[in-house]
Write a structure and sequence with these properties.
Elements (H helix, E strand, L loop, with lengths): L16 E4 L12 H13 L4 E3 L8 H10 L8 E6 L1 E5 L19 E5 L3 H15 L6 E5 L6 H20 L5 E6 L2 H10 L4 E5 L12 H9 L2 E5 L17 E2 L2 E2 L2 H16 L4 H8 L6 E7 L3 H12 L4 H9 L5
Parallel strand pairs: 1-2, 1-12, 2-3, 3-6, 6-7, 7-8, 8-9, 9-12
Antiparallel strand pairs: 4-5, 10-11
Helix pairs in contact: 1-9, 3-4, 4-5, 5-6, 8-9
């Protein structure tokens, strides 16, 4: 099936670095509205013009905060993406309890309803636009189709992928995509056809590359760009020296992953390069990766990651990592 060409500007128009706004949805720790503005301000002042959010992040709080910030900026100067698959509806049973999805520190005044249907996709986009107070979204991703039971992944994709493609064809969005943390779901989405972008969380990182070579080759053949996220694998690669008590995939770090991270750090140090800088820049060494979306909880973290993205990484570092079999 021929891959439709996106009708809007490519991501490269807005640079190859984006900011993910999950933290603005009170991921793990509550932040004030002022802190959220400081987070977004640091990114904007640092030249970031690509922002990603989702209804899932803080039961809509991330979208509300990001939208309020972006409404102060010229609309043609930034690329905005959000996601579909979880509708937000009022929680009639709310009595002061927190979000049952305990990653986000927010009151459960809304609840998530899993809905990958065509009507659900369109309604989700309409709701997101209302929460953000903006007139359009540039990219819509089908969000986490694998997280609702393995037997439902393909049906969710077979329903939602054509729906987001129709939104693109109708001119509602410029780009249609799928965001996932598994190679299997990403390959299934690529096989269905029609998507422009795959947002790949933690599956093509300095630590591990299960997306290589099959998925990346399939994306190259189909003309699908990869947006790389979770470059630190939930924190293991976020420090120059990987801590034993860091997180991997939001859980305890397996011993073999920690040993591999330590060796990566040693090779980086031999080239006067910090491990997090190499981790952030790794994906962009492959031409199929069109952008990197970073996470950050504070303005200082944004500025630190911007510096890491701009730090020189010698080609010999990549060569030595390849020679040891640490990267393809």
């Amino acid at each position: 099936m021929p891959v439709p060409q996106p009708s809007g500007p490519s991501l490269s128009t807005f640079g190859r670095l984006g900011l993910g706004a999950a933290n603005a949805g009170n991921l793990y720790t509550a932040m004030s509205d002022e802190d959220a503005v400081a987070l977004f301000d640091a990114a904007w002042e640092g030249g970031v013009r690509h922002f990603d959010t989702a209804p899932h992040y803080g039961l809509g709080l991330s979208e509300e905060r990001l939208g309020a910030f972006l409404r102060t900026k010229p609309r043609e100067e930034f690329h905005l993406s959000t996601k579909v698959g979880r509708l937000l509806v009022p929680n009639e049973a709310f009595s002061g309890q927190g979000d049952p999805f305990d990653h986000f520190v927010v009151p459960a005044t809304r609840r998530r309803v899993v809905d990958y249907s065509s009507d659900g996709v369109r309604r989700s986009v309409e709701d997101s636009l209302e929460r953000m107070g903006l007139d359009r979204i540039d990219t819509v991703y089908v969000h986490d189709p694998e997280q609702h039971g393995a037997e439902r992944t393909l049906p969710h994709l077979e329903s939602a992928v054509p729906a987001v493609c129709r939104l693109r064809e109708d001119g509602v969005v410029a780009h249609a995509g799928v965001g996932t943390g598994t190679v299997a779901a990403a390959r299934a989405a690529a096989a269905i056809g029609g998507v422009d972008l795959l947002m790949l969380a933690g599956r093509y990182t300095l630590l591990e590359q299960p997306a290589h070579p099959e998925l990346i080759d399939e994306c190259a053949s189909a003309g699908i760009g990869i947006v790389n996220t979770a470059q630190f694998n939930s924190g293991l690669l976020a420090s120059p020296t990987p801590a034993r008590d860091a997180h991997y995939e939001y859980a305890e770090v397996p011993e073999d992953k920690h040993r591999r991270a330590v060796r990566l750090a040693e090779v980086c140090a031999a080239h006067d390069t910090e491990l997090p800088a190499a981790a952030l820049q790794f994906g962009l060494q492959h031409p199929q990766v069109v952008a990197v979306v970073m996470g950050a909880a504070t303005g200082d973290q944004v500025r630190q990651n911007l510096a890491r993205m701009r730090a020189p990484v010698p080609e010999q570092l990549w060569s030595d990592l390849r020679a040891e079999g640490l990267i393809p």
